[in-house]
Structure to design on (432 residues):
């Protein structure tokens, strides 16, 4: 934090103390004074409230000007871009105050379709457009499912189902060991998988007759996590090794970060690219979370003991790349502000004991909610992403621990997988 920011922050705290004294909250002001020990002393003042009113007026005026720009725009592409910037950025705590949430919370989701593998179901993912989902299992198989067909299957009687209507449209058997991670291409019909057989396979699911991988990348360690670069030409790979790999999908060339001092000290358990491509994040068994420059692969932010020293289960950027959602084996979920090493919100209540399995935390499609399974109760915890308020639990109906969770990026649908060999598709139907 530079000196100018620290000076502004100090002035803000002084203004808070002065406002509390001005409003008659002397005990609260004294407790803050004992913590911060400001010098010189802060006199009573209503300046903070006046600044707050000016800020609200300026924000309202800014919104009016943006709306006028949108209405007067003669260029259709400019209009689309402006609308996208205003409405599709997801969570933004710097400018949001009272947000009207229209999306359903987790308790309103119902099981629509269930499919089974021959062994525990370990991972799941959704395509960029939400039209497809995939599940991976310890039996080394991958199932590709059609979103719309799962909805139809849930609405119709199973006896009337034809082969063309079956939700499982493909099953891949290219791996020879447990599937550990799945990731869809950011804009094309490709899907990448990683497994304990040390292989990364890429499938083209638009080819109806093909059930084989179109690309194979071989590593020297079992794969733990994969993430596509937004450009689609590179895959970030975390494996049972402290060094993150970056593979070129076409030729299989591998690149690593240039400074060994910035590596994790234990293996990398989770990786994720920001939508901008300018950053990527990694989490490791060493309990550290690292944010890296997407061009130079230099570590620009290191958060040691992010979850009390426990292993990191997942890292995931928000849509606007300003926040990082993380889960650890301490059963806590945290929202971090990129660049400050500060956890803004801690989402609590997902169990009091340490987790035995690595399970991810995710946003819903609008980033209004944070979702994370309670390992002990086999239920789904749901929080307001903006204030950490815990919502009602959703019983997940798995008979054994849940191993993975993925939410559609565009619709109120999600997949859960568990050690009971099953993958469940959940959907929140529109209220009539």
């Amino acid at each position: 934090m530079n000196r100018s920011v620290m000076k502004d922050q100090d002035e803000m705290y002084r203004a808070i103390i002065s406002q509390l004294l001005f409003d008659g909250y002397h005990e609260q002001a004294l407790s803050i004074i004992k913590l911060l020990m400001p010098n010189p002393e802060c006199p009573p003042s209503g300046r903070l409230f006046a600044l707050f009113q000016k800020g609200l007026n300026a924000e309202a005026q800014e919104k009016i000007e943006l709306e006028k720009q949108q209405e007067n725009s003669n260029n259709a592409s400019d209009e689309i871009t402006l609308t996208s910037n205003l409405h599709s950025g997801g969570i933004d705590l710097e400018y949001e105050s009272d947000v009207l949430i229209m999306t359903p919370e987790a308790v309103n989701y119902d099981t629509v379709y269930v499919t089974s593998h021959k062994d525990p179901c370990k991972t799941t993912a959704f395509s960029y457009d939400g039209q497809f989902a995939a599940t991976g299992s310890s039996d080394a198989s991958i199932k590709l499912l059609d979103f719309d067909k799962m909805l139809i299957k849930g609405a119709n009687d199973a006896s009337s189902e034809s082969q063309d209507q079956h939700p499982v449209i493909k099953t891949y058997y290219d791996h020879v060991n447990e599937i550990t991670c799945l990731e869809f291409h950011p804009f094309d019909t490709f899907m990448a998988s990683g497994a304990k057989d040390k292989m990364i396979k890429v499938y083209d699911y638009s080819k109806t007759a093909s059930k084989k991988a179109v690309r194979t990348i071989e590593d020297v360690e079992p794969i733990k996590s994969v993430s596509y670069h937004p450009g689609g030409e590179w895959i970030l790979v975390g494996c049972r090794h402290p060094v993150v790999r970056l593979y070129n999908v076409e030729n299989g060339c591998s690149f690593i970060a240039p400074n060994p001092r910035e590596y994790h000290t234990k293996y990398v358990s989770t990786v994720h690219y920001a939508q901008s491509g300018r950053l990527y994040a990694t989490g490791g068994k060493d309990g550290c979370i690292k944010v890296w420059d997407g061009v130079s692969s230099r570590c620009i932010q290191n958060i040691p003991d992010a979850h009390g020293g426990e292993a990191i289960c997942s890292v995931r950027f928000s849509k606007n790349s300003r926040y990082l959602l993380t889960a650890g084996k301490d059963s806590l979920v945290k929202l971090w502000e990129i660049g400050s090493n500060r956890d803004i919100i801690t989402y609590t209540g997902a169990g009091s004991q340490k987790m035995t399995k690595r399970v991810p935390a995710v946003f819903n499609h609008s980033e209004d909610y944070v979702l994370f399974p309670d390992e002990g109760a086999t239920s789904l915890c749901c929080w307001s992403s903006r204030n950490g308020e815990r919502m009602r639990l959703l019983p997940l109906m798995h008979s054994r621990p849940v191993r993975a969770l993925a939410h559609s990026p565009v619709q109120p649908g999600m997949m859960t997988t568990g050690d009971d060999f099953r993958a469940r598709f959940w959907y929140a139907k529109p209220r009539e």
Observations:
- Residues 47-72 form the longest helix (26 residues).
- Residues 74-88 have pLDDT under 50 and may be disordered.
- The first strand starts at residue 110 and ends at 116.
